[in-house]
Design goal:
The chain is of the alpha/beta class. The strands form 2 sheets. It has a 5-stranded parallel β-sheet with strand order 7-6-5-8-9, with helices on one face. Pathway: Pyrimidine metabolism; UMP biosynthesis via de novo pathway; (S)-dihydroorotate from bicarbonate: step 2/3.
Length: 315
Protein backbone atom coordinates (compact mmCIF):
# COMPACT_ATOMS: atom_id res chain seq x y z
CA UNK A 1 0.00 0.00 0.00
CA UNK A 2 1.30 3.46 -0.85
CA UNK A 3 2.47 5.34 2.23
CA UNK A 4 -0.06 7.69 3.82
CA UNK A 5 1.21 10.87 5.43
CA UNK A 6 -2.13 11.98 6.88
CA UNK A 7 -5.79 10.99 6.81
CA UNK A 8 -7.69 14.26 6.71
CA UNK A 9 -10.15 13.63 3.88
CA UNK A 10 -11.37 10.59 2.00
CA UNK A 11 -9.86 12.36 -1.00
CA UNK A 12 -6.45 11.61 0.55
CA UNK A 13 -7.10 7.98 -0.42
CA UNK A 14 -7.20 6.41 -3.84
CA UNK A 15 -10.00 3.92 -4.47
CA UNK A 16 -7.47 1.11 -4.17
CA UNK A 17 -6.22 2.46 -0.84
CA UNK A 18 -9.79 2.58 0.46
CA UNK A 19 -10.22 -1.08 -0.48
CA UNK A 20 -6.92 -2.05 1.10
CA UNK A 21 -7.77 -0.29 4.36
CA UNK A 22 -11.15 -2.04 4.45
CA UNK A 23 -9.46 -5.40 3.88
CA UNK A 24 -6.88 -4.71 6.58
CA UNK A 25 -9.61 -3.54 8.98
CA UNK A 26 -11.47 -6.78 8.33
CA UNK A 27 -8.27 -8.68 9.17
CA UNK A 28 -8.05 -6.84 12.49
CA UNK A 29 -11.76 -7.43 13.15
CA UNK A 30 -11.41 -11.19 12.76
CA UNK A 31 -8.04 -11.98 14.34
CA UNK A 32 -6.90 -11.71 17.95
CA UNK A 33 -5.47 -8.24 18.52
CA UNK A 34 -2.82 -9.59 20.88
CA UNK A 35 -0.89 -11.49 18.20
CA UNK A 36 1.49 -8.58 17.69
CA UNK A 37 1.70 -4.87 18.40
CA UNK A 38 3.15 -3.06 15.38
CA UNK A 39 3.03 0.35 17.08
CA UNK A 40 4.99 -0.61 20.19
CA UNK A 41 7.20 2.35 21.08
CA UNK A 42 5.10 4.87 19.17
CA UNK A 43 3.37 7.82 20.82
CA UNK A 44 -0.06 9.03 19.67
CA UNK A 45 -1.87 12.08 21.06
CA UNK A 46 -5.65 12.35 21.05
CA UNK A 47 -6.84 15.95 20.87
CA UNK A 48 -10.63 16.03 21.15
CA UNK A 49 -11.60 19.68 21.12
CA UNK A 50 -15.31 18.93 21.19
CA UNK A 51 -17.29 16.24 23.04
CA UNK A 52 -17.08 12.64 21.84
CA UNK A 53 -17.65 9.20 23.27
CA UNK A 54 -17.60 6.62 20.47
CA UNK A 55 -14.83 8.11 18.39
CA UNK A 56 -12.54 9.02 21.29
CA UNK A 57 -12.74 5.66 23.04
CA UNK A 58 -12.61 3.79 19.74
CA UNK A 59 -9.34 5.50 18.79
CA UNK A 60 -7.88 4.91 22.24
CA UNK A 61 -8.74 1.21 22.11
CA UNK A 62 -7.26 0.96 18.61
CA UNK A 63 -4.05 2.68 19.69
CA UNK A 64 -3.61 0.50 22.76
CA UNK A 65 -4.36 -2.72 20.90
CA UNK A 66 -1.61 -1.80 18.44
CA UNK A 67 0.81 -1.20 21.31
CA UNK A 68 1.09 2.59 21.07
CA UNK A 69 1.62 4.86 24.05
CA UNK A 70 -1.45 7.12 24.28
CA UNK A 71 -1.55 10.74 25.39
CA UNK A 72 -5.04 12.17 25.95
CA UNK A 73 -5.28 15.94 25.62
CA UNK A 74 -7.80 17.84 27.74
CA UNK A 75 -8.37 21.32 26.31
CA UNK A 76 -9.68 22.76 29.57
CA UNK A 77 -6.48 21.89 31.43
CA UNK A 78 -4.00 22.55 28.63
CA UNK A 79 -2.10 25.62 27.45
CA UNK A 80 -4.82 26.27 24.88
CA UNK A 81 -6.87 27.58 27.81
CA UNK A 82 -4.10 30.19 28.19
CA UNK A 83 -4.33 31.26 24.57
CA UNK A 84 -1.84 28.90 22.94
CA UNK A 85 -2.76 28.03 19.35
CA UNK A 86 -3.46 24.47 18.23
CA UNK A 87 -0.46 24.74 15.91
CA UNK A 88 1.85 25.60 18.81
CA UNK A 89 0.40 22.77 20.91
CA UNK A 90 0.98 20.29 18.09
CA UNK A 91 4.45 21.67 17.40
CA UNK A 92 5.25 21.16 21.08
CA UNK A 93 4.02 17.57 20.97
CA UNK A 94 6.09 17.00 17.85
CA UNK A 95 9.19 18.30 19.63
CA UNK A 96 8.54 15.83 22.45
CA UNK A 97 8.60 12.93 20.01
CA UNK A 98 4.89 12.29 19.46
CA UNK A 99 4.46 10.74 16.02
CA UNK A 100 0.73 11.20 15.33
CA UNK A 101 -2.18 13.31 16.48
CA UNK A 102 -5.85 12.37 16.29
CA UNK A 103 -7.85 15.60 16.18
CA UNK A 104 -11.56 16.35 16.56
CA UNK A 105 -12.55 19.97 16.17
CA UNK A 106 -15.53 22.23 15.53
CA UNK A 107 -13.49 24.15 12.96
CA UNK A 108 -13.88 23.13 9.32
CA UNK A 109 -10.63 22.48 7.42
CA UNK A 110 -8.36 23.05 10.44
CA UNK A 111 -6.29 19.97 9.65
CA UNK A 112 -5.81 21.00 6.02
CA UNK A 113 -4.38 24.28 7.29
CA UNK A 114 -1.92 22.43 9.56
CA UNK A 115 -0.82 19.54 7.38
CA UNK A 116 2.06 21.22 5.55
CA UNK A 117 3.56 22.91 8.59
CA UNK A 118 3.98 19.84 10.83
CA UNK A 119 5.87 16.56 10.67
CA UNK A 120 3.26 14.97 12.92
CA UNK A 121 0.93 12.60 11.08
CA UNK A 122 -2.60 13.96 11.41
CA UNK A 123 -5.79 11.93 11.57
CA UNK A 124 -9.13 13.65 11.24
CA UNK A 125 -11.54 12.43 13.92
CA UNK A 126 -14.23 14.81 12.66
CA UNK A 127 -13.85 18.46 11.70
CA UNK A 128 -16.88 20.69 12.01
CA UNK A 129 -19.42 19.90 9.32
CA UNK A 130 -16.74 18.91 6.83
CA UNK A 131 -15.56 15.27 7.03
CA UNK A 132 -15.16 12.24 9.30
CA UNK A 133 -13.06 9.78 7.28
CA UNK A 134 -12.61 7.01 9.84
CA UNK A 135 -16.38 6.88 10.41
CA UNK A 136 -16.75 6.52 6.65
CA UNK A 137 -14.24 3.66 6.61
CA UNK A 138 -15.94 1.77 9.44
CA UNK A 139 -19.29 2.20 7.69
CA UNK A 140 -17.77 0.84 4.48
CA UNK A 141 -16.29 -2.10 6.37
CA UNK A 142 -19.70 -2.87 7.90
CA UNK A 143 -21.42 -2.73 4.51
CA UNK A 144 -18.79 -4.94 2.89
CA UNK A 145 -18.91 -7.52 5.68
CA UNK A 146 -22.69 -7.77 5.32
CA UNK A 147 -23.13 -7.69 1.55
CA UNK A 148 -19.73 -8.83 0.31
CA UNK A 149 -19.69 -6.09 -2.33
CA UNK A 150 -20.25 -2.42 -3.05
CA UNK A 151 -21.02 -2.31 -6.76
CA UNK A 152 -24.74 -2.21 -7.44
CA UNK A 153 -25.79 -1.40 -3.88
CA UNK A 154 -28.08 1.52 -3.13
CA UNK A 155 -27.43 3.47 0.08
CA UNK A 156 -29.81 6.12 1.45
CA UNK A 157 -28.49 8.68 3.93
CA UNK A 158 -31.35 10.47 5.66
CA UNK A 159 -31.62 13.37 8.08
CA UNK A 160 -29.53 16.44 8.89
CA UNK A 161 -27.44 16.36 5.73
CA UNK A 162 -26.33 19.99 5.85
CA UNK A 163 -24.35 19.51 9.07
CA UNK A 164 -23.19 15.92 8.61
CA UNK A 165 -19.44 15.41 8.35
CA UNK A 166 -20.16 11.70 7.94
CA UNK A 167 -22.02 12.52 4.74
CA UNK A 168 -19.12 14.76 3.71
CA UNK A 169 -16.82 11.74 3.68
CA UNK A 170 -19.33 9.34 2.13
CA UNK A 171 -19.86 11.75 -0.76
CA UNK A 172 -16.17 11.27 -1.56
CA UNK A 173 -16.16 7.48 -1.23
CA UNK A 174 -19.44 5.70 -1.98
CA UNK A 175 -19.82 6.82 -5.61
CA UNK A 176 -16.21 5.76 -6.34
CA UNK A 177 -17.00 2.26 -5.09
CA UNK A 178 -19.96 1.84 -7.43
CA UNK A 179 -22.67 2.60 -4.85
CA UNK A 180 -25.77 4.55 -5.83
CA UNK A 181 -26.23 7.21 -3.14
CA UNK A 182 -29.64 8.67 -2.30
CA UNK A 183 -30.20 11.61 0.06
CA UNK A 184 -33.42 12.49 1.88
CA UNK A 185 -34.44 14.82 4.68
CA UNK A 186 -35.93 18.21 5.48
CA UNK A 187 -35.33 20.84 2.83
CA UNK A 188 -33.87 23.14 5.51
CA UNK A 189 -31.24 20.49 6.30
CA UNK A 190 -30.39 19.54 2.70
CA UNK A 191 -27.06 20.13 1.01
CA UNK A 192 -26.91 22.35 -2.03
CA UNK A 193 -27.46 20.08 -5.03
CA UNK A 194 -24.63 21.88 -6.84
CA UNK A 195 -22.18 20.54 -4.21
CA UNK A 196 -23.11 16.91 -4.80
CA UNK A 197 -21.03 14.55 -6.96
CA UNK A 198 -22.50 13.36 -10.23
CA UNK A 199 -25.04 10.57 -9.77
CA UNK A 200 -25.99 11.39 -6.17
CA UNK A 201 -29.76 11.88 -6.02
CA UNK A 202 -32.05 13.82 -3.70
CA UNK A 203 -35.27 11.83 -3.23
CA UNK A 204 -38.29 11.74 -0.92
CA UNK A 205 -38.47 9.62 2.22
CA UNK A 206 -40.58 6.89 0.67
CA UNK A 207 -38.16 6.24 -2.19
CA UNK A 208 -35.14 6.40 0.10
CA UNK A 209 -36.53 3.87 2.58
CA UNK A 210 -38.30 1.54 0.19
CA UNK A 211 -35.65 1.13 -2.50
CA UNK A 212 -32.33 1.10 -0.63
CA UNK A 213 -30.15 -1.76 0.54
CA UNK A 214 -28.79 0.40 3.38
CA UNK A 215 -30.90 2.97 5.21
CA UNK A 216 -28.50 5.18 7.18
CA UNK A 217 -30.16 7.64 9.55
CA UNK A 218 -28.46 10.79 10.83
CA UNK A 219 -28.96 12.69 14.07
CA UNK A 220 -30.41 16.19 13.98
CA UNK A 221 -27.41 18.24 15.16
CA UNK A 222 -29.26 20.83 17.22
CA UNK A 223 -25.96 22.22 18.54
CA UNK A 224 -25.04 23.30 15.00
CA UNK A 225 -28.35 24.93 14.14
CA UNK A 226 -28.37 28.69 14.51
CA UNK A 227 -32.14 28.64 14.22
CA UNK A 228 -34.59 26.77 16.41
CA UNK A 229 -35.93 23.51 15.01
CA UNK A 230 -39.29 24.44 13.52
CA UNK A 231 -40.97 21.17 14.46
CA UNK A 232 -41.13 19.16 17.65
CA UNK A 233 -39.09 16.01 18.03
CA UNK A 234 -42.29 13.99 17.69
CA UNK A 235 -43.21 15.80 14.47
CA UNK A 236 -39.71 15.31 13.08
CA UNK A 237 -39.95 11.59 13.83
CA UNK A 238 -43.23 11.27 11.97
CA UNK A 239 -42.06 13.30 8.96
CA UNK A 240 -38.41 12.31 8.56
CA UNK A 241 -37.62 9.57 11.08
CA UNK A 242 -37.34 5.85 10.53
CA UNK A 243 -40.61 4.93 12.22
CA UNK A 244 -41.79 1.38 12.81
CA UNK A 245 -44.28 1.82 9.97
CA UNK A 246 -41.65 3.10 7.52
CA UNK A 247 -39.29 0.29 8.45
CA UNK A 248 -41.93 -2.24 7.37
CA UNK A 249 -41.61 -0.87 3.83
CA UNK A 250 -37.88 -1.56 3.58
CA UNK A 251 -36.94 -4.03 0.87
CA UNK A 252 -36.12 -7.62 1.91
CA UNK A 253 -32.52 -7.92 3.03
CA UNK A 254 -32.10 -4.17 3.63
CA UNK A 255 -30.25 -3.05 6.75
CA UNK A 256 -30.36 -0.08 9.12
CA UNK A 257 -27.25 1.94 9.98
CA UNK A 258 -26.53 5.05 12.04
CA UNK A 259 -23.13 6.67 12.79
CA UNK A 260 -24.27 7.71 16.27
CA UNK A 261 -24.95 9.14 18.66
CA UNK A 262 -28.59 8.33 18.00
CA UNK A 263 -31.70 9.90 19.46
CA UNK A 264 -34.30 7.21 20.02
CA UNK A 265 -37.73 8.36 19.00
CA UNK A 266 -36.41 11.24 16.88
CA UNK A 267 -34.55 10.09 13.77
CA UNK A 268 -35.09 6.41 14.59
CA UNK A 269 -37.68 4.47 16.54
CA UNK A 270 -36.21 3.04 19.72
CA UNK A 271 -37.23 -0.51 18.80
CA UNK A 272 -35.25 -0.34 15.54
CA UNK A 273 -31.87 0.48 17.10
CA UNK A 274 -31.33 -3.19 18.01
CA UNK A 275 -33.66 -4.78 15.46
CA UNK A 276 -32.56 -7.93 13.65
CA UNK A 277 -31.67 -5.94 10.54
CA UNK A 278 -29.84 -3.18 12.43
CA UNK A 279 -26.05 -2.96 12.05
CA UNK A 280 -25.69 0.01 14.38
CA UNK A 281 -23.71 -1.72 17.11
CA UNK A 282 -21.74 -3.66 14.49
CA UNK A 283 -20.60 -0.24 13.25
CA UNK A 284 -19.39 0.60 16.75
CA UNK A 285 -17.54 -2.72 16.96
CA UNK A 286 -15.93 -2.16 13.57
CA UNK A 287 -14.77 1.30 14.55
CA UNK A 288 -11.83 -0.09 16.52
CA UNK A 289 -10.69 -2.32 13.64
CA UNK A 290 -11.02 0.44 11.03
CA UNK A 291 -8.99 2.85 13.16
CA UNK A 292 -6.37 0.17 13.79
CA UNK A 293 -5.94 -0.19 10.04
CA UNK A 294 -5.54 3.57 9.58
CA UNK A 295 -3.08 3.98 12.47
CA UNK A 296 -1.03 0.99 11.37
CA UNK A 297 -0.80 2.24 7.80
CA UNK A 298 0.20 5.76 8.84
CA UNK A 299 2.73 4.84 11.50
CA UNK A 300 4.38 1.88 9.80
CA UNK A 301 4.35 3.30 6.29
CA UNK A 302 2.32 0.36 4.97
CA UNK A 303 5.12 -2.10 5.68
CA UNK A 304 5.42 -5.28 3.64
CA UNK A 305 4.40 -7.38 6.67
CA UNK A 306 0.82 -6.92 5.51
CA UNK A 307 1.13 -5.07 2.20
CA UNK A 308 2.20 -8.19 0.32
CA UNK A 309 -1.15 -9.84 0.96
CA UNK A 310 -3.09 -6.88 -0.42
CA UNK A 311 -1.75 -6.54 -3.95
CA UNK A 312 -5.15 -7.48 -5.40
CA UNK A 313 -8.19 -6.49 -3.42
CA UNK A 314 -11.60 -7.37 -4.80
CA UNK A 315 -14.40 -5.62 -2.95
Amino acid sequence: MNCLNHLISMNDLSTEQIKQLIKRADDWATQPATIRQPLAGSFVANLFLEPSTRTRFSFEMAEKRLGAQVLNFAAESSSTSKGESIYDTLRTLQAMGVQAAVIRTKQNHLLQQLRDSLQLQLINAGDGTNEHPTQCLLDLLTIWQHFGRFAGLRVAIIGDLRHSRVLGSHLQALPRLGVELLLAGPQSMMRDAAELPSGVKIVDMAEAVQTSDVVMMLRVQLERHSETLLVTKEEYHEQFGLTLERAKSMKPGAVIMHPGPFNRGVEIASELVEADNSLIFKQVENGVAARMAVLESLLTGGKAQWESSLQTVNL
